[in-house]
Design a protein that fits this description.
The structure is a single chain. The chain has 404 residues and is α/β, with parallel strands linked by helices. 31% of the residues lie in helices and 24% in strands. The chain contains 14 helices and 15 strands. The protein has helices at 13-21, 38-49, 64-71, 85-98, 112-122, 142-145, 154-157, 160-163, 165-176, 194-199, 228-233, 238-241, 347-356, 370-389, and strands at residues 2-7, 28-35, 58-60, 75-78, 103-104, 129-139, 180-188, 259-266, 271-280, 283-291, 294-302, 318-327, 333-335, 368-369, 393-394. The strands form three sheets. It has a nine-stranded mixed β-sheet with strand order 13-12-11-10-6-9-8-7-15. The longest helix has 20 residues, at 370-389. 41% of the residues are buried.
């Protein structure tokens, strides 16, 4: 039985906490929880206690070395991999130095519809892929949420091009079986933030939502008190560190972009145009592949949710999935992917089994390692540099030395 320690017990962590405490308790067990907030890690123990498990030791983030020494875990889980060049290089250096392995859980790889795209492209359905257009739409629920919480400060998250787009950049690497080579990007803050709101005629501002009458008239406000999960993870934890989860998206202090466009050239000579907008009416993607023998299109509409809002089974669940193939000289046809229950179109269930269940052969090779994690991040890091310099950035010019 493997021993697991969890670093970071916020909203997304509940998926893994409950999985090991229930479906995978015969193969895995928790030995430590770690976070910057004592109230939040105490809540993690409440979750496993509700499943009949004894509490595990709790550690502050500054006590990480004690976790290793005192609990001797086989696996330490943390998300995301990291956010910038220096930290990425430190992780790669540690892997080289220790010979240990690193898994990066790119949940989108496991979604049946994304797996189907990998199958279709690998089978040569549209021949060699020359270009990709990938448009991701964040709506006014999960999209706005990045502008309420710690992600809004680019010093914390390096912006959506790292913290959100890393999943999309990894998908393209996964689909194409290639690696990024050159990145060019543009982006701006056009919708969120006080200055933008004032330009649209908004005059009623507030700093945070909780117990604020002005927030009751704002459709972007997040009410935490009615949600048991948000209340336990954040509202009741504020006294510990002063972190407010429900800031106004039209307040000052937002330094990340909400409109982004990126062009990427890959080592196999394919090019991608990518866009991310964080304030749109629906959540999901449009992605197209243009190849030597035709065109492949996919449209996904995801259900709305708020991270940590107790709706983890709905995170990334689908309202619509439409995949179509347009052969060069033939009739177009639709590719049906049977709908599956659970988060990320059923991908979360597959991912959890891959992480914690019995080993199975996966011809799609969806399990991602440190190289995959670094490459997806490097696309976002290069895009951020391009934003600053207004020039293309070579992946090889980043201060990150990838192993062969």
């Amino acid at each position: 039985m493997k021993k697991y320690a969890l670093v970071g017990t916020g909203g997304r962590a509940g998926l893994y906490i409950i999985a090991i405490a229930t479906d995978f308790s015969a193969r895995a067990r928790w030995v430590a929880f770690c976070d910057t907030n004592r109230v939040r890690i105490t809540y993690a123990n409440r979750l496993i206690g509700a499943q009949g498990h004894a509490p595990v030791p709790l550690y502050h983030a500054q006590e990480f070395d004690r976790i290793i020494a005192e609990t001797r875990p086989d696996v330490v889980s943390e998300k995301p991999m990291t956010i910038d060049e220096d930290k990425c290089q430190a992780i790669l250096d540690a892997i080289r130095r220790t010979g240990r392995q690193l898994r990066v859980t790119f949940n989108y790889r496991y979604a049946p519809h994304h797996s189907k795209i990998r199958e279709l492209l690998a089978a040569g359905t549209i021949g060699e892929v020359f270009s990709v257009h990938f448009e991701w739409l964040l709506n006014t629920q999960p999209g706005a949420d990045y502008f309420r919480r710690w992600h809004r400060d680019k010093r914390n998250s390096c912006g959506l091009l790292v913290h959100k787009s890393t999943h999309h950049f990894d998908l393209v690497n996964f689909w194409l079986g290639s690696e990024p080579e050159t990145v060019y990007a543009q982006g701006d803050l056009r919708f969120y933030g006080r200055a933008n709101a004032e330009q649209r005629g908004i005059t009623d501002f507030y700093a945070r939502c909780h117990q604020n009458p002005a927030a009751e008239r704002d459709p972007f406000a997040l009410q935490m008190a009615p949600s048991p999960t948000l209340r336990a993870l954040y509202l009741e934890a504020e006294q510990e560190d002063g972190y407010f989860r429900d800031k106004s998206v039209f307040d000052n202090g937002i330094s990340i972009e909400d409109v982004m466009g990126v062009m990427v050239r890959y080592k196999n000579r394919a090019i991608m145009t990518y866009s991310l907008n964080a304030y749109l009416p629906w959540e999901g993607l449009n992605v197209v592949f243009n190849g030597s023998q035709g065109r492949l299109e996919m449209k996904l509409v995801e259900k709305s949710y708020v991270n940590g809002g107790g709706e983890q089974a709905q995170e990334g669940a689908l309202d619509e999935c439409d995949i179509r193939v347009f052969p060069m000289f033939g009739d177009a046809y639709r590719v049906d992917v049977p709908p599956q229950a659970g988060g990320h179109g059923g991908g979360d269930r597959v991912m959890l089994n891959d992480l914690f269940g019995a080993p199975v052969d996966d011809p799609l090779r969806r399990a991602a390692g440190f190289r995959d994690g670094a490459l997806s991040m490097m696309t976002g890091i290069a895009a951020n540099r391009s934003l600053r310099t207004e020039a293309p950035v070579k992946i090889s010019a980043l201060a990150i030395s990838l192993p062969d």
